[in-house]
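Sample pair:
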Amino acid sequence: MPVSPDCILCLCRQSLDAARFASSDPRLHEQVLRRSLELALERGFADIPPLLGQEIHREIRRITGNADPYLAVKRQFNDVMFSRIEELRAMIRRFANPLEGAVRLAIAGNTIDFALGTSLTAEIVDAAIQKAMHQPINGDLEALFRTISEAKNILYIADNSGEIVCDQLLVEEILREFSPRLTVAVRGVPVINDATREDAVRIGLTEIVPVIDNGNDGLGTILEQCSDEFLKSFREADLVIAKGLANFETLIEYGPDRITQNVAYLFKAKCPFIARFSGTELGDLVVRIENPAARSSLGQKTE
């Protein structure tokens, strides 16, 4: 998807947020912002937003000397969400179809995104979860349930820390209902508040399913940069469940030469540009099932 002027402004604001998480030195804050503006001018509209964001966050880590600026808030939201896991599990169980409750919860968890600002609180997340339990879904839930039920090997690509607790509950529900082979993938290197192996271990997810990382510091899933282990799991999966905006922004770029299986995108439309691009409304709970190979074959003329 293209970079919009709003993306440039958002990434520069994000760089200053990250610099302030990383250091209390205002001189470093200015240096980070100046370098981010330079990158925006150099790379600007040539890349998709996650690629530009990746370069900016590499520079933030280099300039500040802080390898994981968001570590404290990542641990905070993991602990907050995990402390509520039984309450959240009971919330899911109140649905006639608990899988629906788990999907709603997983998408609501996508609210825990410090790329969009630093004002997030546990109260905001709780309000988002409560709303998600009854608001309309933008997408076809029944098609999602059917796609999951037919899958034998699922790769679940997680997004953010804290949110990963909600992902764990959806993973549990999928395993309870259908017993597929299921692997969870996280980021290989800390970037913003994206989930890494430390987060998966902290909440006990590694005790439930195999957890791998993608081998890089990209925002989203940039297949050209992913590890052999991740790519093997990706190729072998007959369903990829991709959580969050950055995974949607990156994977939607690939055609049938790289993606031949179903990809189920689950995200909250938190950004006006993403909402317009995906044909949704701001704040929607979004379910999208894509298959580039099927889309390509539909576009071919038959003799």
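The two ends are 33 Å apart (CA to CA).
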